[in-house]
Amino acid sequence: MRSDDSRMxxxxxxxxxFVTVFLAIVVHLNEFNVFMGNQSIKxxxxxxxxxxxxxxxxxxxKCRGTNLSYPRNDKILRFPVPDNKVSWDTPYTxxxxxxxxxxxxxxGPVWADIDVRKPRTPQPRWNTVDGKIDRQSHTGHYVxxxxxxxxxxxxxTGVRGRGCLGRWGPNHAADPIVTRxxxxxxxxxxxxxxxxxxxxxxxxxxxxxxxxxxIPGGMVDxxxxxxxxxxxxxxxxxxxxxxxxxxxxxxxxxxxxxLFCRGEEIYRGYVDDPRNTDNSWMETVAFNFNDDxxxxxxxxxxxxxxxxVGVKWTDINSEIKLYASHxxxxxxxxxxxxADW
Length: 341
What we know:
The chain has helices at residues 3-29, 103-106, 226-238, 246-259, 326-337; strands at residues 34-36, 39-41, 48-50, 69-70, 73-77, 98-101, 129-130, 133-134, 159-163, 169-181, 200-207, 213-214, 218-219, 262-270, 280-291, 308-315. By secondary structure, the chain is an alpha/beta fold. Among the domains are: 3-50; 174-269 and 284-337, Nucleoside Triphosphate Pyrophosphohydrolase, CATH 3.90.79.10. Strands 1, 2, 3, 10, 11, 12, 13, 14, 15 and 16 form a ten-stranded mixed sheet that branches. The chain has a two-stranded antiparallel sheet with strand order 4-5. Strands 6-9 form a two-stranded parallel sheet. It is globular, with a radius of gyration of 23 Å. It comes from Owenia fusiformis (Polychaete worm). InterPro entries: NUDIX_hydrolase-like_dom_sf, NUDIX_hydrolase_dom, NUDT9. GO terms for molecular function: ADP-ribose diphosphatase activity.
């Protein structure tokens, strides 16, 4: 074959591959305008999300401890894991975690996996998208342990199995941090007199299961885009859209679409959650949506719904106490917006 013909054949083979990769990148980015530092990628949509990459926590504390019972079951006590024994790289010869998976998970609801440790059980496709289920971790590639199930990437927790979490490995959630500036009767932004920084408020819900205050988030359904989860969970838990009339839902949807068309990613990764086990753990993507002038969601009447028993606008400061890692997300939000802490 002539050299010219050979080069043409190579180009012909390479071109479809290039087009496929290019189209895959375009499709992946089509939902967002992504900003990386001073660089931006424009798409045809009007949605703008600023993406911030974060690191995996070095350790966890909410899911281990001495005489610490597992959530929703006081009879299940975690095997003690001291600070210097959390890492899987550190030998812990006496480590004997209790094996626990809640009955609500074992009953086989649609949101839960089967017990893949049983003989002749079909194995999920770990570290990838398995059908509609995303089994990838924001922390990177996770290890499959000697029992054939994922191993917690941060370390030991004192409990083996899934606890009350449905998925082996990462259980994906999304947390919308909806904020506004605190204002006085004259609609002026209030400031902390000691540092002259503006006071920021966020919508907090009181969890039905623990009674703790938290960000109104929830689990990402199989095949669901995170942007959809963020709006759905906020509407259901903070605005009680599940029980709203048709007209109320339309008004809420319109205002949420206006606010949620732009946002800033605050965190993406592992969550130090009390439900975590050696084989199942929570991960989230937290976005901040700030109602800067207080004219959209900032004027909404909040109504607790779904898994929440209370909801309120909460002042942000360093004394705030929240569920799991939520205080860290709120602190990061305050720093990004230059608010009082």
